[in-house]
Amino acid sequence: MSRFRFYCLGMLVGIGAAGVRMEVSAQSEGSAPQATVRQTEEETDSIPTVTDLEEFVVKGESYSMQDGKLTIAPPEGVVATSQFAPDLLGNLGIPGLRYDAESQTVSVNGAAPVILINGTIANPSRLKTIKASDVLSVQFTRNVPLVYQRYGSVLIDIRLRKIHEGGTILAAAESDMLLYAQGAQLDATYNRGPSQWSLSYVYSRRNNSKVHDINTTSYTSPQLNVDITSEGESPFRYNTHSPSLNYIYNPSRDILLQANLSLYAHNQHFNTNTHAHDSMAGDYATKGESRAASLSPTLNLYFQKTFGSADMLQVDMSGTMANSDYTMLRDYTYTDPAEDETYLYDTRSRRRALLTTVAYTHTFGETTSLEVDYENTVARTVNRYNTPDEPYRVSQLDNHLYAQLQKGFGPVWLTINTGIRLDYMKEGSISRRYLHNTSSLAINWTINRAMWLSFRAGYTPLTIEPSQFIDHQQKVSPYRVTSGNPDLRMPQHWDILADYTVKLGKVSLIPQVVYNRNHYLVATSYAYDPQWEAFVEKPVNLVYSDILIGRLQGSAQEVAGMFNFSGSVEYSHANTKWRGGEKTILNCVYAYLQAQWYYRQWAAGVSYNFPCRNLVGDNITKSGPLSVLWATWRPNGHWTLMARWSYMLEPRGWTYYSQQTAPGYYSTFDRSIRNSANAVSITATYYCQFGDIFRTSSRSRTIGKKDNAKTYTTFD
Predict the structure, then answer these.
(1) Measured distance CA(233)–CA(229) in Å, rounded
(2) Do residues 310 and 342 lie in contact, with contact meaning Cβ atoms separated by under 8 Å?
(3) Cβ atoms of residues 664 and 220 within 8 Å
(4) Does a structural domain hold residue 33?
(5) What is the residue range of 28's domain?
(6) Does any domain span residue 16?
(7) pLDDT of 10-50, one tens digit each?
(8) Could you tell me the pTM of the whole model?
(9) Can you tell me the distance from the alpha carbon of 686 to that of 702, in angstroms, rounded to the nearest whole number?
(10) Residues forming a β-bridge with 293
(11) Is 637 helix (H, G, I), strand (E, B) or coil?
């Protein structure tokens, strides 16, 4: 049972009509609180009258650690300063979680978490359509059930208010006229009996015309040495559409069926107009155009059946039809001698994949469970290139078998994973088989009600992409030829993580140490080929790429009844080694600070991100300093208006920097978007809750709502 305690304050109910019964219950089931207020009619279908109904308050502990799971009931101050689920998660102090305000996404230790909503799998993009005030509790755990482990290594389960016999509508729109950026979100839910429907849609548009790029490239070999510097304008625009339709059928506690149809549609258009200085060819101009379009519909089916109180069967099937087209056309105009060269790179990819997961769980008593899981992947990828115009067909067949044991020893919870992966890949006469085990160990120790210690160590093989496998060569510039590598080894990933959570009243501190080591990580090599008289870029395996991070998170919530504070500081040491012995080492210190204020219908906040550089494999990226000032006003229960001011200390505005270093090759890419250092965006959000549109005679009340919707709300 959960540690949650409940009590009622000031409950006074008057019954104004005969034949009407008011049922009030509060209970705790698992690790999430439940409270139900329901009004029923015993003998008549007439509309009852309820008078003198005062507020029913349910309170519980905001933090609870049990069975290796951290459950947080968002405090009122955090809800008041959050709009949607992503920024709410960023304010809760979850170990290792980072919220990206620009993309409205969350990551845990650099990776996307598994997202469940009311216990069922959800697309991470749907977080942008969940109102923060609808979140009852958030559960965080690294003990991911096997059926979900292909989605990520940590799990976040968000519990929302379940609206029975009714639904909700949420619509939001955002615009930044200086950057020509717009976004929109829509979420509509409807519930009737055992059926629940939800339709969500996320749209994003960017149109930046003042984009300035600076590129430096060096190729070094005994046969050819070239240094190139280019500078010019690269305006771009893109649109992204992400609709999703979800249906859940839950006729009883023993059966649950979920069907989710999602679509990801993205198209982008880039233009380039640059001037280059080449140590071999002198000065010349280039003009280029690239277009990309992708369409990926996915159908996911999930079935869950429990047998008694000890056994559960889960089946998850996911089918994807991903279509991606990319075309790049670049013209080189030389001055001496006067001549032109044109390069065309054209890729059309069609991928069909079916992933099936079957998991069976048996519980021994209250502290022990065993889960066995089988995964099968059947995929077919067909790539077509401009030269030669013939298809490359890659077939994949993967079979994985896993077992997971969870055992509780008083305040200590132990999770052991082990399994075998057999992956097969074939293209024409070339085929590869990869056989690896996978294993992990996690320990969670609840020292007391305010102190928790967790540790995880694991080993996982990383999947090779079909595009890295295909050995097709295509010249894309005077000095560069692209190619695949069918001899790649499967990368292997080791990770060790330990953190210690201390909760002292309104203040929480989380020191954390993370170590990731990747053997045979895939990177890009460059070697001169006399046949092409150019450098061939080919995916190869690094000896290792590792990173050590020391992080300290802290937060203070509801200080003086109107302030929230949070922040983190971390030091990272990254190290990459190539087969020839070359090394790349990078050290960085990163920090993030945030302060929020709220009072009645108003909320405001300020945050600052310090600059930092990151090294992953052969690629270094850099983020600049960013300060954000925002304010929200909620005039009623329906509308929320938000103004956001992003200010950068660098006059160049938003920048993207990447650096790639390989034996015989060095390249930097530095992009800046002018007039973006001082950006203002406006967001408007509308939310409403409505009752059953088929049975208008029923009446009930929703806790804490002013709309008096014809629904009842279940907290679970």
Answers:
(1) 14
(2) no
(3) yes
(4) yes
(5) 1-61
(6) yes
(7) 322 222 333 333 333 343 333 333 433 333 333 333 333 33
(8) 0.83
(9) 19
(10) 267, 325
(11) coil
